[in-house]
Amino acid sequence: MKKTVYSGNKKNLGVSPVIGVILMVAISVVLAVSLYMMLPHVSQSMENEPAVTFVSHKNNGNNWTLEVVTERPINPINIKYALIDKNGSVIVSGAQFPTNSSIEDDNGIKWIDYNGDGKLSTNDEIEINGSKIGIKSGTTFKITAGAMGYCELPY
């Protein structure tokens, strides 16, 4: 076997360990700073959509009442909803939430604004008339825009 001896030719040498460590630290700092710059935007977009919780009550037949619990009032103009059956098939998607209190929409959804502030607030109710478009038990009512929340309609 032949041993290679350093002949003074720098083309055969790699980067020194000190320079290599400095480059790795610099790359890590750049990655950390870029992630830090992106994260505030992600958290701000999540803060814009308040969470909504529903307390569900089954009335007679195919009618349900959902009592609303939310962290802050939500303008109904910004809300869209979906109805998904128990098999995961979409019955209604992207429907505009009723903006007038106590008026039932074409899908049998009615919002009752108990405190009269014109916004979806805690203690307001959503009534679902299941016979209007054939909604059955096990259907999920889901808010898809303007807020985050869903509720499965009980049997």
Describe this structure in words.
With 155 residues, this protein is of the alpha+beta class. It folds into two domains: 10-47; 52-152, Immunoglobulin-like. The protein contains one helix and eight strands. It has a four-stranded antiparallel β-sheet with strand order 1-2-6-5, with no helix packed on it. A four-stranded antiparallel β-sheet has the order 4-3-7-8, with no helix packed on it. A hairpin with a 3-residue loop joins strand 7 (140-145) and strand 8. The longest helix has 31 residues, at 17-47. The protein is elongated. It starts with 16 loop residues before the first helix and ends with a strand.
Q: Runs with pLDDT <50, length 5+? A: none
Number of strands: 8
Radius of gyration over alpha carbons? Answer: 29 Å
Question: How are the strands of the biggest sheet laid out side by side?
Answer: 1-2-6-5
**According to CATH, what is the class of the largest domain?**
Mainly Beta
β-sheet strand percentage = 25-35%
Write down the overall geometry.
Answer: elongated
Overall pLDDT level: 80
Helix amount, in percent? 10-25%
First and last CA, distance: 82 Å
Number of structural domains:
2
**Largest sheet entry:** 4 strands, antiparallel
As for the CATH topology of the largest domain, it is: Immunoglobulin-like
Structural class: alpha+beta
Tell me which CATH architecture of the largest domain applies here: Sandwich
Count of helical segments? Answer: 1
- What is the H/E order? HEEEEEEEE
